[in-house]
Amino acid sequence: MRAVVQRVSQASVTVDGQVVGAIDQPGLLVLVGVTHEDTPDVAAKMAAKLWHLRILDGEKSCSDVAAPLLVISQFTLYADTRKGRRPSWLAAAPGPVAGPLVDAVVSSLREQGARVETGVFGADMKVTLTNDGPVTILLEL
Question: What's the domain range around 56?
Fold first, then answer.
């Protein structure tokens, strides 16, 4: 499982012209990609890492200051661009596998007390954000 984590002052995701998820205060925008070997246990570990990652102002984590997270599925994180000019998506898990595992990350975050907003799995989404810092980190489990 991979996640691109951005510290943001605000972020939102829109589908078909409607905002489906938004955070309007400092927190994290998290793009999550799933590969074939990922499991619910990996999803729980990713959620714990995200909840306790100390990249907010003052080296705080979301758990320290109850900062919100906007979690969006992103299969393109597993693009293989080593050959040619067209990415291969073979390393990305198919929707029926990836969707439940992204949901597991969100559920685990919520079980830990996080306020989590989401996109819509598989939808054409428009993401808007104000990157704070900028701070952008790649997590891989």
Answer: 2-140
Query: 7-64, pLDDT tens digit by residue?
Result: 999 999 999 999 999 999 999 999 999 999 999 999 999 999 999 999 999 999 999 9
Phi, psi angle pair for 39, to nearest 5° = -135, 170
pTM more than 0.85? yes
Indicate the number of domains in the chain.
Answer: 1
Catalytic annotation, residues:
74-76
Query: What phi and psi values does residue 51 have, to the nearest 5 degrees?
Result: -65, -30
Q: How many CB atoms lie within 10 A of CB 83?
A: 8
> What's the angle, vertex CA 135, arms to CA 131 and CA 137, rounded to 5?
120
